[in-house]
Amino acid sequence: MWRAATRLGGVIAIVLLTAQPQGVLGQDHGGGASQPAAVSCARSSFRVVVDVGHTLDVPGANSARGVPEYAFNLQLAREIKQALADAGFEQAVLMITGTAPWRGLFERATRANAMHANLFIAIHHDSVPDNLKHIWEYAGQKNEFNDDYPGYAIFISEDNADPAGSLLFGSLLGRELEHRGLHYTPHYTLALMGHRRRILVDAAAGVYRYDQLIVLRATRMPAVLLEAGSIVNRQEELELASPERRSLTSAAIVAAVENFCAMRTRPPVVKAAVSGH
Ligand SMILES: [Zn+2]
Of 11, 22, 46, 123, whose CB is crowded by the most CB atoms within 10 A? Predict the structure, then answer.
């Protein structure tokens, strides 16, 4: 997996070199991350696909209290889609998939490509590897938990058709989440994560590189996967189940989409800033 470190894409490498320690977006974005975008974008034609991670039948991780991840993903993704629509992104699509992996993963990308989406956001909730889980009893049932690694995480793939766009949106999103008092989990860089260990490509925003993710590498538009928080964490699970937390995350996504859309409306400026050319 560390072969990846030696072939860090030129774009990301340049951005990291020029932007540290402030992260990909540089210094001028710190305080104004949630301010309205300076340039308006064509919101009504900017299509965001909000992908509900996993399926009803193969629902992903189990929370510390035994609730399947899919239920968290569906509820949050619905609210994000609604928040985007309320903000004028009428073309936002809630993508629900019934086909199990692996076919279902390719199907998500194929559908997003066919509808010429401008941005793809996969919504997930995080767990930990099995060897890091502990047992407790909740409501008379034995459940697994891990309280050590709360926080969100954002993943991008360098194999996506637009890795620079993916990183840009991931960085914008992380900034908006941090701006609202949420914090990313740094544990993906730890050795104990084994083959799940990832390279942190934006240390200010919590953006990791995970090239192999099918929904990110098979999509032809900028794409990120958001782990909205850890549902195996007993405290964070309660927060993630609350309307307040969902609303914070939705608002951060809308703000990031607004900024991304506006920046993409002025490609010459963005290109120069992001690619270092
Ligand atoms: Zn998941």
Answer: 123
Which regions of 184-222 does DSSP assign to beta strands (E)?
Answer: 199-202, 207-209
Q: What is the pLDDT of residue 27?
A: 43
**pLDDT, tens digit, 9 for 90 and up, residues 156-168:** 999 999 999 999 9
Ligand 1 centroid distance, CA of 202 (Å): 21
From the list 148, 149, 137, the residue with the least C-alpha distance to 66 is 137
> Ligand 1 centre from 136 Cα, in Å?
22
d(CA 54, ligand 1 centre) in Å = 6
Report the separation in Å between the CA atom of 108 and the middle of ligand 1, taken as the mean of its atom positions.
14
Q: How far is the CA of 269 from the centre of ligand 1 (A)?
A: 35
pLDDT of residue 11: 39
Ligand 1 centre to CA of 92 (Å) is 21
Q: For residue range 204-213, what is the model confidence (pLDDT) as tens digits?
A: 999 999 999 9
Q: Cα–Cα distance between 269 and 121 in angstroms, integer?
A: 24
- Cα 125 to middle of ligand 1, angstroms: 6
Average pLDDT of the chain to the nearest whole number: 88
In Å, how far are 60, 145, 159, 258 from 46, measured between CA atoms?
30, 39, 23, 10
